[in-house]
Specification:
By secondary structure, the chain is mostly helical. It has helices spanning 13-39, 43-48, 54-87, 93-105, 108-119, 126-131, 140-150, 153-166, 169-176, 181-210, 213-219, 229-238, 242-279.
């Protein structure tokens, strides 16, 4: 007897599952495995050789700096945007929702190009900034701006559905009992969304560290100064240092795998807490 709400799988369902698994192996597992195979083309020594170069460590350090600035900024924005959208009605609410989703619908290259058009030497604010001795493009500031824009939706988009489902009853009760707005936020709102927030931050960080298109436009590809890890991989590959390029790429691939593990753990923890919230 079938359980309520469960579909009876037709006889051809295993074939569909097999095709899906085969497709994932061909499109995800094999390319990822080839990164590690190519990186070990010259043995462990060849794998470790690029990590003895100052440019590689500069790229690692810059990647961590850019992600370390961009992710907290988007976490703050995501919390503020989700709270505003789910707790208040105001003019421009639909526009705010559209703007949150906008980075998903435009090319990463465009996300970098808009900053060049604004702050580049020939940009809208370029001359004024140059007169004040301020440089944005081809600096860490430009990399952060491009990364913030391209990763802007991740935290907000994880929080908004959850906060809509939870409703504002607990917050209203806390404020009725005399809690201030900040106290309500830190004692009620934030604990209720902590797992969704961590999940969004995790996805945001993964995208920030692996972003190529947007940062490529604003970086200038200055070795040792404005090259993040993805850009450093490209430079090594273009210089025909294939083993070095794949060796550095293994670091990004490893970060991706760690993100996948952490994502699965958070999904498990988040789904359990959401189920408990629904029961109450």
């Amino acid at each position: 007897m079938n359980r309520p709400g469960k579909l009876h799988l037709p006889g051809w369902a295993p074939l569909i599952v097999l095709l899906a698994v085969a497709g994932m192996i061909a499109l995800v597992v094999l390319p990822l495995a080839m990164v590690f195979v190519q990186a070990l083309g010259n043995g462990v020594g060849g794998l470790l050789a690029p990590f003895r170069e100052p440019d590689t460590w500069s790229a690692i350090r810059l990647t961590l700096i850019v992600a370390g600035i961009s992710v907290p900024l988007n976490a703050i924005f995501g919390l503020a945007a989700a709270w505003a959208v789910t707790r208040f009605d105001f003019a421009g609410k639909s526009l705010l929702m559209a703007l949150i989703d906008l980075p998903f619908s435009i090319s990463p290259v465009i996300s970098g190009l808009v900053w060049v058009l604004l702050f580049g030497a020939q940009g809208f604010f370029g001359a004024a900034l140059d007169a004040m001795g301020i440089k944005v493009i081809f600096t860490v500031t430009g990399l952060v701006l491009a990364t913030v824009l391209i990763t802007l939706p991740f935290v907000a988009r994880e929080l908004i559905p959850l906060m809509q489902e939870q409703g504002a009853e607990e917050e209203a009760a806390a404020m009725t009992l005399g809690a201030s707005g900040w106290s309500t936020f830190f004692r009620v709102t934030l604990p209720n969304v902590k797992w969704a927030l961590l999940y969004g931050v995790l996805l945001c960080n993964a995208r920030a560290m692996g972003e190529f298109g947007a940062v490529s436009v604003v970086s200038g590809h200055i070795r040792g100064l404005t090259n993040t890890l993805p850009l450093h991989v490209e430079i090594l590959y273009n210089e025909y240092d294939f083993v070095g390029a794949f060796a550095v790429a293994t670091l990004l691939a490893g970060l991706g795998l760690l993100t996948l593990v952490a994502k699965s753990l958070l999904e498990w923890r988040f789904s359990g807490e959401l189920a408990a919230t629904r029961r109450h």
